[in-house]
């Protein structure tokens, strides 16, 4: 069998349009394709590969658990799930955890919990959910409707109701929407897919205060920002604002699929037995790998290193821009970084991704105008500099 890009078009549903490059092996921040070409990975599986590829701690955890027990279902519990939940609650505001397989599923659980909490405590009229334009919360029908990008939610029939949106960082618009019938507000503490947009401190604190005033739950979607990505274990810890419910996924498993919804015991009690569930959620394999990833990242030296790498990354991007004048700005936190293309390249961010591949660098976009970088959190300074040298060649080829 010839396994190449043409086979994708033959056997795969065409909802993706992947590169012709097919990676077959990775180690740390480097990847090799079928032809043995080497790439530096500044994409990180879209902020998933927090420890790069084939990190020894994750490989060891997978091998060890793989020889013990793989799957049970939630008729029984298991040791890795309990250990991971304990470590996550010890390190965050939360008391209890629900495990799923993805960020979308974790967000689905958060939204269902918020609706059930409001129904139990206040009645059926308290069902409004407020979210933000250009937000992204997953691809289930509920989460994609809450996400503020109509391009992803239109065209599938009637949408879940009582969901409204306003602009991120617009506190006045938010004030006009929230009322006593609002059950929850869902937001990213740093918008990822929407263009790497950081929240203004007054905005996020104002949202928290208004949620308290109207007895609404504040849900933080930390699928992309969580587990060290911003230089904090979770981004909320750097904002001085604590949510009522939080989702985590992507980097949580370091590449193994897992998601988690975290909350307080008082809120969690409204998901009684039978109200929600997942066949694979909290399976021993995923939780064992996630425990190893969580242990490795939840280290003051590693988290401080993310902030140091942020400074270097932005400095090198600004140096490139000083030569070629292609970006209007560089933004983001930790190693979730966006370079915003200027008017000369408006709508053409993807061209930088394609040109980077030709120079041996994997990168991402966040919309049509932002080149996004989400590398391993433990990438070396040498690999950052080498990757940026390749990115400079890509930029030079476009101007």
UniProtKB/TrEMBL annotation:
Cellular compartment(s): Cytoplasm
UniProt-recorded Gene Ontology molecular function terms: transaminase activity
Sites of N6-(pyridoxal phosphate)lysine modification: 250
Pfam families per the UniProt record, alphabetical: Aminotran_3
Enzyme class: transferase
Chief location bin: cytoplasm
Keywords from the UniProt entry: Amino-acid biosynthesis, Aminotransferase, Arginine biosynthesis, Cytoplasm, Pyridoxal phosphate, Transferase
Family matches, as Gene3D superfamilies: Aspartate Aminotransferase, domain 1, Type I PLP-dependent aspartate aminotransferase-like (Major domain)
Superkingdom of origin: Bacteria
Cofactor: record remark: Binds 1 pyridoxal phosphate per subunit.
CDD domains the UniProt entry points to: OAT_like
Pathway in which the depicted protein is active: Amino-acid biosynthesis; L-arginine biosynthesis; N(2)-acetyl-L-ornithine from L-glutamate: step 4/4
Extra remark beyond the main annotation: May also have succinyldiaminopimelate aminotransferase activity, thus carrying out the corresponding step in lysine biosynthesis.
Complex and partners: Homodimer.
HAMAP family hit by this protein: ArgD_aminotrans_3
Entry protein name: Acetylornithine aminotransferase
Organism: Pseudoalteromonas qingdaonensis
